[in-house]
Design a protein that fits this description.
Blueprint: E1 2-3, E2 6-10, E3 16-25, H1 28-44, E4 49-55, H2 58-61, H3 67-70, H4 78-85, E5 91-95, E6 107-112, E7 120-124, E8 141-143, H5 147-156, E9 161-163, H6 169-178, E10 184-188, H7 189-194, E11 203-204, E12 219-224, H8 228-234, H9 240-256, E13 264-271, E14 274-282, E15 289-297, H10 324-343, H11 346-359
Parallel strand pairs: 3-4, 3-5, 8-9, 8-10
Antiparallel strand pairs: 1-2, 2-3, 5-12, 6-12, 7-10, 7-11, 13-14, 14-15
Helix pairs in contact: 9-10
């Protein structure tokens, strides 16, 4: 039964409970990610009925064009947000790295879950088993549709050639295995792990080889910012360390005005009460780059959690159970690091990268 924007269900004993509808992309990985969030919510709120609503997005339909060429920031999120706006779903599970750093008005990220390994992984063609990127023959073709991965790896492994590869994880692995086009492909380790394909990982790329994308490896739950009850419900899913790292990363990217169409990379860690962040920008071929590291304290000052307030969003994230001052410091760290890179010429590198990519 529907009442206003909400949907309810009645069990055999006449008890009425609200149905929470969770929107997701149709891909297998998106479904696995959404199911994992639904399972956590079910464990925390056994009385709530959860319904999963799957839909296709533009990014799932346009498979023959490099993402950076389509140039739309919300490729994988638009249709899901439309459903959220029309009250057809109550929350949406995303890979945080797919979510633009500025969300449309009325939406917020109500939870950022504990991050899976954020690094990139090398998946070799079976005929190259046992090799590494270093030992692959000259001019071996590596598949990646990410400008960020290609720029860093061209710089680090100049003997290799890089080509676009699109499609979901299943499609990319199929393209690698069934043809001789690629010696290896580069994928996010997190996705492979969630799909149960860890055995395909030939190597994990450390930050010295390839830093990761903003928000990579973290799942985000997006909801309507006015839905105080839903925000309260999902807020228990927040992982405080992941929240602080991702706020810093998103603030960095937003200040640089980066997106899919420019090579921007980050590396963050929390150690001994300090949040360390390395950020970098690259030219498309990796020959030009700027990289800096900064840190800030993560210690909480004021113990009182904030009241839920639509205004208190930091780069789209509402995290009422994470100390506000720690969030502010994380955001300032990202801004400060972006400022530092801009003062050294990051804008010029990114502008040229954008123009060259548009001309490709």
């Amino acid at each position: 039964m529907e009442e206003g924007p909400y949907k309810y269900t009645r069990d055999g004993n006449g008890r009425v409970s609200r149905v929470i509808r969770i929107g997701t992309r149709k891909s297998q990985l998106a479904r696995i990610q959404t199911d994992s969030v639904a399972e956590k919510l079910k464990g925390l709120y056994p009385d709530v009925h959860l319904e999963i609503v799957a839909m296709s997005t533009i990014g799932d339909k346009i498979l023959d064009t490099a993402l950076s060429k389509i140039g739309e920031k919300s490729l994988f999120t638009k249709e899901l947000e439309n459903a959220l706006e029309r009250n057809e779903v109550d929350l949406v599970v995303h890979s945080l790295k797919d979510l633009p750093t500025t969300l449309p008005p009325g939406f917020t990220i109500g939870a950022v879950l504990k991050r899976e390994n954020p690094h990139d992984a090398v998946v070799l063609h079976p005929s190259h088993a046992g090799k590494t990127l270093d030992t692959l023959p000259d001019c071996s073709v590596i598949g990646t549709s990410s400008l960020r991965r290609a720029a860093q790896l061209k710089r680090r492994f100049p003997h290799l050639t890089f080509k676009d590869i699109r499609g979901n994880l299943n499609t990319r692995l199929k393209k690698l295995d069934e043809k001789q086009d690629f010696a290896a492909i580069i994928l996010a380790a997190a996705g492979l792990k969630r799909m149960g394909w860890e055995n395909r990982i030939s190597a994990i790329l450390g930050p010295e080889d390839c830093m990761y994308a903003v928000g990579q490896g973290a799942l985000a739950v997006e909801c309507r910012s006015r839905d105080v009850d839903i925000l309260e419900m999902v807020s228990v899913l927040h992982d405080p360390d992941t929240v602080l790292r991702c706020i810093a990363e998103r603030a960095f990217l937003r200040h640089l005005e980066g997106g899919c169409s420019v090579p921007v990379a980050v590396y963050t860690q929390i150690k001994d009460g300090q949040l360390y962040m390395t950020g970098a920008v690259y030219s498309l071929d990796g020959s030009d780059s700027l990289k800096e590291t900064m840190q800030t304290s993560t210690a909480a000052g004021d113990p009182s959690p904030e009241k839920v307030d639509e205004q208190v969003q930091r780069v789209g994230v509402t995290a009422t159970k994470v100390p506000a001052d720690a969030q502010d410091r994380a955001e300032r760290l990202g801004l400060g690091l972006a400022e530092l890179l801009l003062s050294k010429g990051a804008k010029e590198i990114l502008t040229v990268a954008r123009q060259l990519n548009d001309a490709r």
